C-alpha cells in the first residue's frame, strides 16, 4: 500500500519565515496528484519534505502508513525526478539507472532485467551505453524517469521535470509521463507551476498559494467550481475575468451592476445563494469562453451588452478580444469569423450559467 | 524587384563584394599582428629566461668542471656511481611522494569539514587554516628551525611533559627526513584544502540529493559522486604539488642543509651545494636536470587522464 | 493498516528514529574536533614565533620554564632590528624588488592574456599550453644556468638581476589566471565595443580591465606573494648584505658563526611575514580566487 498522508505539516526557516503553513493532504494509492501554484507557494518544499530532503518543522508525513519524519531519504522507498535531471555525468545511462539497485546489492541479472524493462517503457534502449553529455534534454529526462522506475518505489516524486524543456518537447513529454503512469501505476506526487500540466496529468489537483492549500479536487471540479478567487484566476488560460460589481436587490430578482452602466440579471436558481450579499461590492467572475459573440440567444440566462475592444488577438481557432471596462481588462473568446476591430463597439454575450461571484475581502467564491 | 539576393534599382551598380573582402583581410591581418605583439613580452620572458637557460643547462651539464671542454654524459655517469647521489634520488622521491600524499589527505579531510560548515563560520575557519601557506616558506621554516633546535626545542619541552625523551629532530637522519616532510606538509596542506574546497563547491547539490534518494549512505556518496566529480581537480593539484615539492629548496636548505650526512638532500639543495658552493657548475646542472624527465613523465600521465575525463563530462 | 501489521513496522522504525538528527549531530562534533586540531597544528609555529620575538636573549637562553609563554615581554628585538644592522635595508630591498616585479608581471601577463583569450591568431592555443609547461622547468633547475647568464650580464650581486628573473616565476601563472578571467567575458562586449568604434587598446583599457578587475587583483596578489617569498635566487645571486632581500638577509645577518640571535630572528621573521599576512587578511577572497582560478576555470 502506498498512500501518502500529510498531516498538519509546517515548514519554518530560521527567522520565522514559514514556507509551508500547516497543510493536510491524503493521497490514495496509485493516485496521480499534482501540486501546482506560483513560485514560492511551498509546493517544492512540500515535495522535498516527502522526499526527506527538507526537515519537517512540525506535523507528520506518512508513506504507506509509516511515519517517515525521522527516516533518511534512502530508507523511504521513494524515487525522484529532478528539474535538472541530476544524472551522474561520469556514468553511462545504464549505470545511472542501475545506481540505486547497485547500492542495494541487487543481483546483476535482476538489475539488467529492470533496467532493460524501464528502457523499453521509455523507449531509450539504444541509449544505454551513452553518457549524459551525449543526450538531448528530452532524452535526459527520460533517463531520469527510468532511474525512478527501476527502483519500483512506493511513490514517484516529480519536481518540475518539464520546466527545462522547450514548449513542443514539453507537450510530448507530458503524454509520455501520463503513459508511464498508466503502465506502472505508482502513486505519484508531481510539482509544477504550469496549470496546463496540472489539468492534463492529474487525478486530483492541489492548488497552493503562500504556503497553504487553496483547493483540492479533480481538474474539472477546480475549473468549473473553484472555491477561492486565487484558484479561479489560476486555473484556466486565458484567465478568468474579474470585474468589480455590485449586487442589487430589485424586489425579489437580483441584478448585477457592472461599470459602464451594464446591468446583468442574476439567474433565478442563484437568487437564494446571492441574496445575503445584496447591496455589497463583489467581484464578478466569468471565463473568456463564456463571453462570446451573440449566439444561441434562445438559451436561458444569456445577457448581451456592448463593449469596445482595444486589442484583437487572432489565434487561428478562435480570436481573443481584449476589452476594457473602466479599469478592468476583460477577455472574450469569439469565433474567428466574427468581425472585430479595435475601437469599434461590438456586442458581447455573457453566459451567466457559468458566472461566479467572489467576496473581495475573503477571496471566497460565493 | 528583388533578383535573387541583390536588390538593385536600375542604374545602381550591383554588389560591392570584392572591396569588402579586401578590407576584412586587412583587419584580420592587423589584428593578428597586434595580438602577436601583445604576446611578445611573454614570449621574451619564457624564451629568454626559461627556454634558453634550460637548453643552456643541458649544454652546461656536458662540460667539465672548469667548463673548458665537452665531456658528454660523464657528469651523469659520475653522479650515478656515487652513493650520495643515489640516496639523493631516493630521498627526493620519498620526500615528494610522502609529502604530497599527506597533504592530499589532510587537504581532502579539511575541505570536507569546511564544506559541511554553515557559510559564515566557514570563512572564519578557512581564514585561520590558510595561514601556513601565506607566510613565506623561507620565513616559517625559521620558526620550525627554532622549534627543532637541539637544545631549546619547545616541542621537546612539550614532549617531555608526557614523559617522552627529547627527539633529535634535525640531528638524527630518520627524524630529520621526517621533519622536512612535516614542515612541507604543514606549509602545503592548506593549498590542497583550498583547491579541494573549490572543487567540492562545484559539485551540484542535486547529485547528492539524487544519490540520497537512490539509497547512498555518506560513504557511498563520497565514493560514487564526490570523488568522480573531483577527479580532475585532484589530479591537477597532485601533479602541480608533486612538481613543486620535488623541486623544493627553501625548507630543506634552512632546516638541515641536506644533513645530517647528506641524508636529507634533495635535488635542489644538492645541486646548490655542488654547483654553487663547491663551484662545479656543470655537475650542479647535471643534478638538477635529473629532475626533468621524472617531472615530465608525471605530467604526461596526469594530463592525459585529465583531458580524457574533461571531454567525457563536458556539456 | 491493521494493528498487527503496524507493530513490526513501528519496531523497525524505532531503531532509526532520530537517525537523521543523530547522524548530523555526530558529524558536526567530529568536524569541529578536526578543525580545532588542525588549527592548533597550523597556528602553533607562528604563535611560537611571536612569543619568542618578545623575549630577551636572557629569557630565551633560560632553559627553565615553559617556552610557550613570555614572562617578561620586551620589544628590544624589534627595536634593535629597526635601528641597527641591515634589516631595514633588506626590507626596503624586498619592497623595491617586489613592486617592480609585480608591475612588470601585470603588464606582460595582461597584454598576453588579452591576446591569447580574445584574439585568434596562429599558435595561440599552442602558446597557452606552453605557458602551463613552463612550470615543468622549476627554479631549482634554472638557477644554475642563470648563474652563468647573470654573471655574464654583470648583474651578479645586483638587485636588478632579481627584478629580471622573478617574472619567470610569476608571469606564467598570472597569465593563466588572466586568460581564465578574460575568457569568461562575453564576446558580445567585444562586438559592441567594435561597433561603437573602439580600437583594441581602448577595449582593453576601458572595458576588459574594469570588468576583469577581480582577476587582475588576484593575479597581482599572487605575483606579490611569490616575489616577496623568493629564497633560492637571492641566495644564489646576492652575496653582500646590503644587496640582500629579507628572506636571505634575516638568516645571513643574524647568524654569526655559532651564535643564533633567536629573539631577533623571530622578530625579523614576523615582520617579514607581515606584508603577505596583511594582504591576505584584507583581500582574502581575491587571494583564494587567484589560487583556485585554475581549478574552477579549467
Low-confidence stretches of chain B: 1-20
Shape of chain B: globular
Question: What is the CATH T-level topology of the largest domain in chain B?
Answer: MetI-like fold
Number of E-type strands of chain B: 0
Name the helicity range of chain A. Answer: 10-25%
How many helices of chain B in DSSP terms? 14
Our Rg estimate of chain B from Cα atoms comes to 28 Å
What fraction, in percent, of the residue positions of chain B are helical?
over 70%
Instruction: Give me the Rg of chain A, rounded.
Output: 25 Å
User: What kind of oligomer do you see?
Assistant: heterotrimer
CATH C-level label of the largest domain in chain B: Mainly Alpha
Largest sheet of chain A: 6 strands, mixed
Shape designation of chain A: elongated
Low-confidence stretches of chain A: none
The H/E string of chain A reads: EEEHEEEHHHEHEHEEHHEEEHEEEEEEEE
Query: SSE order of chain B in H/E notation?
Result: HHHHHHHHHHHHHH
User: N-to-C terminal Cα separation of chain A, in Å?
Assistant: 38 Å
Task: Give me the number of helical elements of chain A.
Answer: 9
Structure description:
With 366 residues, chain A is an alpha+beta fold. Chain A contains 9 helices and 21 strands. In chain A, strands 6-7-8-3-9-10 form a 6-stranded mixed beta sheet, sandwiched between helices. Chain A has a 5-stranded antiparallel beta sheet with strand order 13-12-11-14-21. Chain A has a 4-stranded antiparallel beta sheet with strand order 2-1-4-5, covered by helices on one side. In chain A, helix 2 (93-103) runs parallel beside helix 4 (137-150) and helix 3 packs across helix 4 (137-150). The radius of gyration of chain A is 25 Å and the shape is elongated. The mean pLDDT of chain A is 90. Chain B has 315 residues and is mainly α. Chain B is 75% helix and 0% strand. Chain B contains 14 helices and no strands. Chain B has helices spanning 17-61, 74-81, 83-115, 119-129, 131-134, 137-147, 154-161, 173-201, 205-214, 218-246, 250-255, 267-277, 281-289, 291-313. Chain C is mainly α and 298 residues long. Chain C folds into 2 domains: 2-53; 76-296, MetI-like fold (Orthogonal Bundle). Chain C is 77% helix and 1% strand. In chain C, a hairpin with a 2-residue loop joins strand 1 and strand 2. The N and C termini of chain C lie far apart (56 Å). Chains in contact: A-B, A-C, B-C. The interface between A and B is medium-sized, with 24 and 23 residues.
Amino acid at each position: 500500500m502506498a498512500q501518502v498522508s500529510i498531516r498538519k505539516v509546517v515548514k519554518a526557516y530560521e527567522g520565522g519565515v514559514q514556507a509551508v503553513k500547516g497543510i493536510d493532504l491524503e493521497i490514495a494509492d496509485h493516485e496521480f496528484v499534482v501540486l501546482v501554484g506560483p513560485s514560492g507557494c511551498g509546493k517544492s518544499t512540500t515535495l522535498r519534505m516527502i522526499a526527506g530532503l527538507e526537515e519537517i518543522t512540525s506535523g507528520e508525513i506518512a508513506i504507506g502508513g509509516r511515519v517517515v519524519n525521522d527516516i533518511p531519504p534512502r530508507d523511504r522507498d521513494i524515487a525522484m525526478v529532478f528539474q535538472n535531471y541530476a544524472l551522474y555525468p561520469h556514468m553511462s545511462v545504464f549505470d545511472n539507472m542501475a545506481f540505486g539497485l547497485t547500492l542495494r546489492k541487487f543481483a546483476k541479472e535482476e538489475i539488467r532485467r529492470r533496467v532493460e524493462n524501464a528502457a523499453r517503457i521509455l523507449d531509450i534502449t539504444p541509449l544505454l551505453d551513452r553518457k549524459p553529455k551525449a543526450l538531448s534534454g528530452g532524452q535526459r529526462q527520460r533517463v531520469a524517469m527510468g532511474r525512478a522506475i527501476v527502483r519500483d518505489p512506493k511513490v514517484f516524486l516529480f519536481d518540475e521535470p518539464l520546466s527545462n524543456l522547450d514548449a513542443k518537447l514539453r507537450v510530448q513529454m507530458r503524454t509520455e509521463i501520463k503513459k508511464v503512469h498508466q503502465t506502472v501505476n505508482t502513486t505519484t506526487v508531481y510539482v509544477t507551476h504550469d496549470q496546463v500540466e496540472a489539468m492534463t496529468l492529474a487525478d486530483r489537483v492541489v492548488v497552493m498559494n503562500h504556503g497553504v492549500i487553496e483547493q483540492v479536487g479533480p481538474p474539472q471540479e477546480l475549473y468549473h467550481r473553484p472555491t477561492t478567487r486565487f484558484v479561479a484566476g489560476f486555473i484556466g488560460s486565458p484567465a478568468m475575468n474579474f470585474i468589480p460589481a455590485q449586487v442589487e436587490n430589485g424586489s425579489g430578482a437580483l441584478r448585477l451592476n457592472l461599470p459602464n452602466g451594464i446591468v446583468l440579471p442574476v439567474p433565478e436558481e442563484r437568487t437564494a445563494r446571492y441574496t445575503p450579499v445584496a447591496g455589497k461590492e463583489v467581484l464578478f467572475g466569468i471565463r473568456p469562453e463564456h463571453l462570446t459573440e451573440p449566439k444561441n440567444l434562445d438559451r436561458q440566462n444569456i445577457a448581451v451588452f456592448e463593449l469596445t475592444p482595444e486589442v484583437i488577438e487572432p489565434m487561428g481557432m478562435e480570436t481573443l478580444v481584449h476589452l476594457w471596462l473602466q479599469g478592468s481588462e476583460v477577455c472574450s473568446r469569439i469565433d474567428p469569423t466574427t468581425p472585430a476591430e479595435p475601437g469599434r463597439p461590438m456586442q458581447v454575450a455573457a453566459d451567466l450559467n457559468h458566472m461566479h461571484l467572489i467576496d473581495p475581502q475573503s477571496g471566497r467564491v460565493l | 524587384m528583388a533578383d535573387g539576393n541583390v536588390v538593385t534599382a536600375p542604374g545602381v551598380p550591383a554588389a560591392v563584394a570584392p572591396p569588402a573582402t579586401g578590407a576584412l583581410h586587412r583587419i584580420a591581418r592587423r589584428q593578428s599582428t597586434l595580438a602577436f605583439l601583445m604576446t611578445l613580452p611573454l614570449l621574451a620572458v619564457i624564451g629568454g629566461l626559461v627556454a634558453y637557460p634550460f637548453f643552456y643547462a643541458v649544454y652546461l651539464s656536458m662540460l667539465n668542471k672548469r667548463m673548458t671542454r665537452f665531456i658528454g654524459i660523464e657528469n651523469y655517469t659520475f653522479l650515478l656511481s656515487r652513493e650520495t647521489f643515489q640516496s639523493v634520488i631516493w630521498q627526493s622521491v620519498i620526500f615528494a611522494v610522502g609529502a604530497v600524499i599527506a597533504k592530499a589527505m589532510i587537504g581532502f579531510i579539511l575541505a570536507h569539514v569546511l564544506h559541511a560548515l554553515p557559510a559564515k563560520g566557514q570563512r572564519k575557519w578557512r581564514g585561520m587554516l590558510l595561514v601556513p601557506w601565506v607566510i613565506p616558506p623561507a620565513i616559517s621554516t625559521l620558526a620550525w628551525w627554532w622549534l627543532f633546535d637541539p637544545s631549546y626545542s619547545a616541542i621537546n619541552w612539550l614532549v617531555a611533559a608526557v614523559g617522552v625523551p627529547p627527539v633529535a629532530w634535525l640531528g638524527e637522519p630518520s627524524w630529520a627526513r621526517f621533519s622536512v616532510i612535516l614542515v612541507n606538509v604543514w606549509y602545503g596542506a592548506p593549498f590542497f584544502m583550498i583547491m579541494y574546497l573549490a572543487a567540492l563547491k562545484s559539485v551540484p547539490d542535486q547529485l547528492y540529493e539524487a544519490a540520497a534518494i537512490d539509497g547512498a549512505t555518506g560513504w557511498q556518496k563520497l565514493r560514487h559522486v564526490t570523488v568522480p566529480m573531483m577527479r580532475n581537480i585532484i589530479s591537477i593539484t597532485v601533479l602541480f604539488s608533486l612538481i613543486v615539492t620535488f623541486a623544493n629548496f627553501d625548507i630543506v636548505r634552512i632546516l638541515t642543509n641536506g644533513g645530517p650526512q647528506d641524508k636529507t638532500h634533495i635535488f635542489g639543495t644538492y645541486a646548490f651545494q655542488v654547483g654553487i658552493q663547491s663551484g662545479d657548475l656543470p655537475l650542479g646542472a647535471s643534478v638538477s636536470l635529473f629532475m626533468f624527465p621524472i617531472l615530465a613523465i608525471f605530467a604526461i600521465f596526469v594530463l592525459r587522464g585529465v583531458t580524457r575525463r574533461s571531454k567525457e563530462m563536458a556539456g | 493498516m491493521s494493528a498487527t501489521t503496524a507493530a513490526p513496522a513501528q519496531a523497525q522504525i524505532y531503531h532509526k528514529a532520530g537517525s537523521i538528527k543523530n547522524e548530523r549531530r555526530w558529524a558536526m562534533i567530529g568536524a569541529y574536533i578536526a578543525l580545532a586540531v588542525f588549527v592548533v597544528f597550523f597556528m602553533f609555529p607562528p604563535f611560537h614565533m611571536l612569543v619568542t620575538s618578545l623575549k630577551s636573549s636572557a629569557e630565551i637562553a633560560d632553559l627553565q620554564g615553559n617556552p610557550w609563554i613570555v614572562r617578561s615581554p620586551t620589544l628590544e628585538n624589534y627595536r634593535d632590528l629597526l635601528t641597527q644592522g641591515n634589516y631595514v635595508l633588506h626590507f626596503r630591498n624586498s619592497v623595491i624588488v617586489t613592486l617592480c616585479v609585480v608591475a612588470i608581471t601585470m603588464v606582460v601577463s595582461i597584454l598576453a592574456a588579452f591576446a591569447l583569450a580574445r584574439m585568434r591568431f596562429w599558435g595561440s592555443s599552442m602558446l597557452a599550453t606552453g605557458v602551463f609547461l613552463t612550470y615543468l622547468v622549476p627554479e631549482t633547475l634554472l638557477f644554475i644556468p642563470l648563474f652563468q647568464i647573470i654573471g655574464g650580464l654583470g648583474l651578479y650581486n645586483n638587485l636588478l638581476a632579481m627584478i629580471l628573473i622573478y617574472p619567470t616565476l610569476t608571469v606564467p601563472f598570472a597569465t593563466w589566471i588572466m586568460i581564465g578571467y578574460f575568457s569568461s567575458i562575453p564576446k558580445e562586449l567585444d562586438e559592441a565595443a567594435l561597433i561603437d568604434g573602439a580600437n583594441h587598446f581602448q577595449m582593453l583599457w576601458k572595458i576588459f580591465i574594469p570588468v576583469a578587475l577581480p582577476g587582475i587583483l588576484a593575479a597581482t596578489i599572487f605575483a606579490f606573494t611569490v616575489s616577496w617569498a623568493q629564497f633560492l635566487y637571492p641566495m644564489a645571486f646576492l652575496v653582500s648584505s646590503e644587496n640582500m632581500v629579507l628572506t636571505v638577509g634575516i638568516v645571513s645577518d643574524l647568524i654569526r658563526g655559532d651564535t643564533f640571535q633567536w629573539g631577533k630572528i623571530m622578530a625579523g621573521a614576523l615582520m617579514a611575514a607581515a606584508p603577505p599576512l596583511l594582504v591576505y587578511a584584507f583581500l582574502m577572497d581575491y587571494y583564494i580566487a587567484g589560487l583556485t582560478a585554475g581549478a574552477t576555470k579549467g
